[in-house]
Amino acid sequence: MSEPYDPYIPAAPSSSYSNNGQKAPAVNSKTAAIQQQIDDTVGIMRENISKVSERGERLDSLQDKTDNLAVSAQGFRRGANRVRKQMWWKDMRMRLCIIIGIIILLIVIIVPIVTKVRGK
């Protein structure tokens, strides 16, 4: 009865040696090559995980900046509306002053003429 294969348990010494007692180089070189590929893959995956972590931090920073910009935009919109209303009232006051000035000027011109014509 043989044991199930487990790649993490080294092979028994009898299986890693050839018939004359020397190590079988093909098995060790294949194992070393596979182990090197695994190590390379693990290294790449660690780099990828660190990059994803950094990207997450940058995304969080970008989200914070976006929120701050939205708050600033809302404040700017309120301020712009307030200034627009103030300028509208200022414009209306100026128009009313001009209209009242014209009416007073017309009264000053027309009243003496009318009283002069009636007096004759």
UniProtKB/TrEMBL annotation:
InterPro entries per record: Synaptobrevin-like (IPR001388), Synaptobrevin/VAMP (IPR016444), V_SNARE_CC (IPR042855)
Cellular component aspect of the GO annotation: cell cortex of cell tip; endosome; medial cortex; meiotic spindle pole; plasma membrane; SNARE complex
Protein name: Synaptobrevin
Region (Disordered) location: 1-25
Annotated compartments: Membrane
Residue stretches of biased makeup (Low complexity): 1-18
UniProt similarity note: Belongs to the synaptobrevin family.
GO molecular function: SNAP receptor activity; syntaxin binding
Gene3D superfamilies: 1.20.5.110
Domain V-SNARE coiled-coil homology: 30-90
Transmembrane intervals: 94-114
Chief location bin: membrane
Membrane topology: Single-pass type IV membrane protein
Keywords: Coiled coil, Membrane, Transmembrane, Transmembrane helix
GO biological process: ascospore-type prospore membrane formation; vesicle fusion
